[in-house]
């Protein structure tokens, strides 16, 4: 009975972690995992492929985006000479562990064994089902960079009437986040990999459209949130999306940077 309870507890923990992980849309995959051994056998590419199938959006590390609505993935080799084991951990910008998924393989050879263990670990990762995040003022962990979010500025105050020059120092928050609007919608532009980017609603981070480069410079194949595909492009530093009208014609939806 005790052993049965332990097994039940393990599956319950996995289910709870999976549910929390699925609340997020965006996953940051580092260029290299902290565990050097995990940077072998194509584990990174395998993880990216699986997460995309599970409807997560992969984001470049150090892209300058606000990562507090995202999770960062790490893969660790937890095996030994007798078995191949892998642990996948997802952390938020507070360095809090949101989900841990482990897999073990009966294959003895390292490469197929590690790949099999990763595949086993990813089976319990739930599909992305993002929920609206409540904004929280956080102090990001230094090991989880959010890009350049603040810089020191020096401001000179000159009061001509008193013929006195005063100087004071202050800090000005600079968000490395591009914001666009068409007058009704306010969207954040988030850079992904290979020239791709996504526009998300600023109030709840829900995707508006995904942009993938075409063969022509600054022209993109666009997939809207409802699954509709269309074209988008840059025009005078503005993002233009062609939307279909009921009669089959097209109109321009123009987003200007704020």
Question: Could you explain how this protein is built, in words?
Answer:
The protein has helices at 2-21, 43-53, 110-122; strands spanning 26-29, 57-60, 70-77, 84-91, 97-105, 150-159, 164-173, 178-181, 186-191, 197-201, 207-213, 219-224, 229-235, 238-244, 250-257. The chain is of the alpha+beta class and 258 residues long. The protein folds into 2 domains: 2-122, Double Stranded RNA Binding Domain (2-Layer Sandwich), CATH 3.30.160; 178-257. The protein has an 8-stranded antiparallel barrel with strand order 8-9-10-11-12-13-14-15. The protein has a 5-stranded mixed β-sheet with strand order 2-1-3-4-5. Strands 6-7 form a two-stranded antiparallel ribbon. A hairpin with a 5-residue loop joins β9 (186-191) and β10 (197-201). α2 (43-53) packs parallel to α3. The longest helix is centred in the first third of the chain and has 20 residues, at 2-21. It is elongated. The relative contact order is 0.12.
């Amino acid at each position: 009975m005790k052993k049965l309870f332990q097994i039940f507890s393990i599956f319950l923990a996995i289910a709870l972690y999976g549910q929390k992980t699925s609340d997020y849309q965006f996953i940051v995959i580092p260029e290299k995992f902290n565990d050097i051994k995990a940077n072998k056998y194509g584990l990174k590419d395998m993880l990216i492929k699986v997460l995309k199938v599970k409807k997560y959006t992969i984001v470049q590390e150090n892209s300058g985006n606000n990562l507090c609505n995202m999770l960062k993935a790490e893969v660790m080799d937890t095996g030994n000479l007798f078995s191949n084991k892998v642990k996948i951990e997802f952390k938020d910008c507070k360095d809090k562990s949101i989900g841990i998924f482990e897999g073990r393989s009966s294959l003895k050879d390292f490469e197929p064994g590690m790949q099999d263990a990763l595949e086993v670990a990813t089976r319990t990762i739930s599909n992305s089902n993002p929920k609206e995040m409540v904004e929280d003022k956080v102090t990001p962990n230094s090991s989880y960079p959010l890009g350049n979010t603040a810089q020191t500025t020096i401001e000179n105050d000159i009061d001509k009437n008193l013929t006195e020059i005063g100087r004071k120092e202050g800090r000005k928050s600079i968000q490395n986040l591009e914001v666009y609007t068409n007058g009704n919608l306010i969207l954040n532009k988030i850079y992904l990999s290979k020239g791709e980017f996504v526009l998300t609603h600023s109030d709840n981070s829900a995707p508006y459209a995904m942009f993938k480069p075409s063969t022509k410079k600054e022209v993109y194949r666009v997939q809207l949130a409802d699954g509709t595909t269309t074209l988008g492009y840059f025009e005078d530093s503005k993002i233009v999306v062609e939307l279909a009208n009921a009669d089959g014609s097209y109109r321009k939806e123009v987003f200007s940077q704020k």
